């Protein structure tokens, strides 16, 4: 099977490719060919060098989608996007990449299929940003998408397109609404959501971290390992079980910041917790207060998608996957 | 105020313009200028000839939206669309007109506003086709949009764009999800929904009509007069009351085909009812079974939108507005 990952240089894209490097049969079939695409040339794990081709290409540029689809991959993971903050700051760029780039990909598949029959599996990275407040206590699977950002709007539009193109058998699509990924590896960044990961990752590495909100802030999480699991499962699963409602809120863990900290104390001790410096930031507090806090992701759970059920597990996964198993 | 109606040659567009002809103050302010746009040159009621300019123009063609927006109307009614059946049969045309045409209009407004401040009121005709089965008994205001047609998908996408552009103060948008309009004036057409109107309009005119489904079929209705009322109210209302959820399911009447027939009997007698010929059509029955049957349109009602509450009223409106008050 020829598998294509668009957005292969991003955090989840890289982890997905690493998963293929570690487990040849991760998708339930042999990957005979792997095409890794991103705006910068994505890294290729050495063990995949025989089958993988990296491509530096911007999906939103004229002809780019056609070039990719002409390779006729059987499975396409589409993870490429301008992130939320940038899509909000740059209206044109956000719509161009997140909406027009995705639509160009969908259209290229349609035209390729008109030329010669072709119905790839397509897994699309969506986001809980498709939802906008006010929310019920738990957001159910039939709650409407009323995004309050252009990023969320672009993702919600692509979800609608994905469902329509799948209904017409142009491709076999699954939209994956990701929770906030925690613990996000790497350096602290300026994303408003960064502290959720920072207050675990930095203390685990013996570094200070800033907590800008109170401990009673609730949010919706899954580990990077779960995120990869979602994409792998979506590529393997029997999509005839999904029906026409192709976009699924992934399972996750609803937890308080205080619960994150308690889990850190259990796993890494008081010394780690002492590295969290409280520095209230009303701007971040206000942004975060508009985010979803809890979901009843029943459909995805019934369809076999799995995430963590407590924060100890999320921290242990970070220690295993990023810190070589020890702190 | 300069008012523009795009789709002014369609059934509701014409009735909206007739409303302006009958009631100078319908919108709560003077219409100083009226631009009437459609792919064919729309009719101009004689009493509006001093202020109205008809324009034959296809919104989906390059430069068309810019041409309209350069006139800087303060209120834009956007009713232009390819209908459901055609959008399903012709993928390219449906997306080109219903999605790209609408987006071109929105983008033209954004660019005009960047050139010189400009935030028109924009009222967009959406549809209950944004919903797809299975449904709850009553579809509430927070139920998700999972259209099962390309037409419904295009409308749902435009709703998302409308909300995002309004949130960014590019325009002041209101999306109006219309019920099935009944009694639709004119000749019987081949739309699968046509019989809902045919079985009233034709007998009222002394003609036979075919009923292709059973009397226990339930559906969601409003009169053409209510539809015009929705648009007028959306143009007059205080949009600060709506908040960011800019797309509203309009109130309507949930009724059985049997209730339509009983109302016809009450208003026009047994003679009229006898003109309904039962001719079951399994194809139409199957299409209709996928449509919404009932809504709890609480938000729109609270915001002052009004529709009929029984079928006698719907029939009387048809007699008043289309048959000169007598049958």
From TrEMBL, chains A, B:
Source taxon at top rank: Bacteria
Gene Ontology MF terms in the entry: oxidoreductase activity
Coiled coil: none
Secretion signal span: none
Keywords for the protein's UniProt record, in alphabetical order: Carbohydrate metabolism, NADP
One Pfam entry name: Epimerase
UniProt domain NAD-dependent epimerase/dehydratase: residue ranges: 3-216
NCBIfam families, alphabetized: ErythonDh
Protein's name according to its UniProt entry: Nucleoside-diphosphate-sugar epimerase
Organism: Rhizobium giardinii
């Amino acid at each position: 099977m020829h598998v294509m990952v668009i957005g292969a240089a991003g955090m989840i894209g890289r982890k997905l490719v690493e998963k293929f490097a570690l487990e040849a049969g991760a998708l339930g079939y042999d990957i005979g060919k792997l095409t890794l695409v991103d705006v910068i040339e994505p890294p290729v794990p050495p063990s995949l060098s025989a089958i993988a081709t990296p491509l530096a290409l911007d999906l939103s540029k004229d002809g780019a989608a056609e070039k990719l689809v002409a390779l006729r991959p059987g499975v396409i993971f589409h993870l490429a996007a301008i992130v939320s903050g940038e899509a909000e700051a740059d209206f044109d760029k956000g719509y161009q990449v997140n909406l027009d780039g995705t639509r160009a990909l969908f259209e290229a598949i349609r035209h390729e299929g008109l030329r010669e029959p072709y119905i790839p599996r397509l897994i699309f990275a969506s986001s809980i940003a498709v939802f906008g407040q006010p929310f019920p206590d738990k957001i159910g699977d039939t709650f409407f998408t009323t995004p309050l950002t252009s990023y969320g709007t672009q993702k919600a539009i692509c979800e609608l397109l994905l469902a329509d193109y799948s209904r017409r058998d142009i491709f076999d699509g699954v939209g994956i609404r990701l929770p906030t990924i925690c613990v996000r590896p790497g350096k602290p960044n300026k994303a408003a959501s960064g502290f959720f990961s920072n207050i675990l990752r930095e203390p685990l590495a013996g570094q200070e971290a800033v907590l800008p909100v109170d401990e009673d802030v609730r949010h919706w999480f899954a580990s990077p390992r779960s995120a990869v699991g979602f994409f792998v499962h979506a590529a393997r699963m029997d999509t005839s079980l999904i029906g026409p409602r192709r976009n699924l809120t992934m399972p996750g863990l609803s937890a308080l910041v205080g619960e994150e900290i308690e889990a850190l104390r259990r796993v890494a001790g008081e010394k780690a917790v002492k590295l969290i410096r409280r520095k209230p930031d009303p701007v971040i507090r206000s942004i975060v207060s508009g985010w979803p806090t809890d979901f009843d992701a029943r459909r995805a759970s019934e369809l076999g998608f799995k995430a963590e059920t407590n924060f100890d597990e999320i921290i242990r996964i970070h220690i295993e996957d990023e810190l070589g198993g020890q702190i």
